[in-house]
Amino acid sequence: MKPEIVTMRQAVDPTVKVGTYVEPSDWNAVVDDPDVLVIDTRNREEVELGTFRGAADPGTEAFTEFADYVATLDPHEHPTVAMFCTGGIRCEKASSYLLDQGFEEVLHLKGGILQYLEDVDPADSRWEGECFVFDDRVTVDHALQPGGYTLCRGCRAPLSDDDRLDPAFEEGVSCRRCAAELTDDRRRRLRERHRQETLARERGDRHIGRRDSA
Fold first, then answer.
1. In the chain, how many domains are there?
2. Among 94, 132, 137, 136, which Cα is nearest to 113's?
3. Known catalytic residue: 85?
4. Is residue 138 situated within a structural domain?
């Protein structure tokens, strides 16, 4: 048991107060409204991979920093705020927190980005890029199919084609973000795990340590 599904470290209770849900079919009107501040509540790396057109990026490394971003906003300047996240969980807390901070109208995308991608035709979409997901797909495209990113096993950052061409990239071990920080022992263990994964894949098996962060 964990006290929180997503850690915000703020005294909020979405079961008492929460923002107004917006159906995916109605979300485009929210994004297109110049009087609405649309906020991406996810972390910076997730935002960089894809987001809704014109959405504000709080620039956070973790959800615990979201309250610091909210402190920079004036409820009087932004009477209507809309927010979104991957599946909607973060927005339950974030919308409740904004209401507590005096924001008059707080909206959030029901079902999150994933529900929007499933329900809205790509021709009508306001989504740009790919969506980070917390499984082996790493990212998904608008059709919810695996996107063009892979995962660095050293720091678990998503990697583009250009990232994989960087001299610091080593398959299953490191990327430019973490190569200089890996200890020799950790590098050795990552290389051994990658070797075991490769052998398992060649046998047609799934390596039991595939999701291990080593």
1. 2
2. 132
3. yes
4. no
Q: Which of 85, 91, 152, 175 is catalytic?
A: 85
Q: Is the dihedral of CA 29, 34, 18, 142 positive or negative?
A: positive
If one compares 3 and 128, the residue with the highest pLDDT of the two is 128
Residue type, 117: L
**Domain boundary, last residue among 70, 98, 132:** 132
Is residue 2 in some structural domain?
A: no
Enclosing domain of residue 183: 152-203
Percent of the chain at pLDDT above 70? 93
Burial of 211 (0-12, 13-18, 19+ CB in 10 A): exposed
- Write down the pTM of the prediction: 0.84
At 1, the pLDDT band (50, 70, 90 cuts) reads low
Region at 34 (left for phi over 0; alpha for psi -120 to 50; beta for the rest): alpha
Q: How far apart are CA 198 and CA 188, in angstroms?
A: 15
* Domain membership flag for residue 210: no
Mode of pairing for the β-strands spanning 37-40 and 150-151: unpaired
